[in-house]
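General statements about sequence and structure are easier to judge against a single worked case. In the encoding step, the backbone of a single protein was reduced to a row of integers, each denoting a local shape. The record that follows shows the chain in one-letter code together with its fold in token form.
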Amino acid sequence: MTDHLATLRGPLAGVRVLDLADGSAAYATKLLADLGVDVIRIVPPSGDPLGRAEPLLDGAGGESLRYWFDNTNKRSVTLDLESARGRAAFEAQVAHADAVVETGPPGAMAARGLGYDHLASLRPELILVSVTPFGQDGPHAGYVADDLITLAAGGLLSLGGYPDTAPIAVDGAQSTYAASLAAATALLIALLERAESGRGCWIDVSAQECIAAALEDAIPEFDIQGTVRRRVGDRPREAGSGVYRCADGFVSMIAGRIGTAKAWTALVQWLRDERTPGADDLAAPEWDSFQHRQRPLSIETFGAAFARFAGARTKAELYREAQSRGIALSPVNRMDEVLADPQLNARDFFVTLRHEELGRDVVYPGAPYRFSRTPWRLRSAAPRPGQHTAEVLAAASPARLPTRVG
């Protein structure tokens, strides 16, 4: 791969991945495809199951927005892995691939005759990435789950919501995307290791473990102190830090925690400058103590003062003035406000792709990283299921393979 082609196609140009993932890891291969990997999505003759994932766009005949997002820059090939001919065609693809990403139940690939040992015998350099809810072994390995189940099993769901209600999950498929990030990262690490060893490997990703790893210090907190972390909902943990209502929505602020003494002082001075009722009381020496600011009465006292202050101001006004004073505060943006955000737009974060089925361009989120020499970019919208079958199969073995394998 020349430097010129790498610049056009991305930093991972020249790598090929076969994508057998369902919705629980399709984002992993999207991350790779958007960085230049040639991702070939293998779908059954009945179509791509992810194409039925909600939300569906009524105006485009029920097109799946999730499918569109998770499959940019990929090619799609129809193969029936339940048939001998389909498996033979897949094996021919393996001979030219760097990795396979799959999400079947433990043992499903082996039951088809496509387990890691067999694939490695065809191509010792191959990397197999298996993403499942609970991993390849253990007492729960065969259990079925979706995003909500692995959030619950991993412990994160127990921390979402209010103290006096059932746990509430945060929006979006959080465990799915956490597992996808882990899978993509692990695959890149395996590619680096393979450059030294010349050998492939089998990577086992458990969505439950991805969520448990995200609990951070909640695990050692229980181990050392026996403290079970509880849900706090929208209740601030200390005066000066939390989500607060303002004239046109909400703002989030961190100004009262340990290590933010300057921010707390600046916040109190701001309230005093604006002659906010109760602000002078917040300047008393005891308020300099983080322990004092954690007391329920202190949280209530500050909240009442700040509510009067913020209720008369917009999110934009609070954002500008707080940041000018060195106080960490941000508007709680809705989706329309995210799309209009001046910082994101100044950095050209959003990108557009043409969708002929709509007759218009569609805005997509960009990448959270930039490469100076080999830029990330969206080259193509999600393919139609099986769109590239003929060209991919012909390239693998034109003398032997049919143009459609079912």
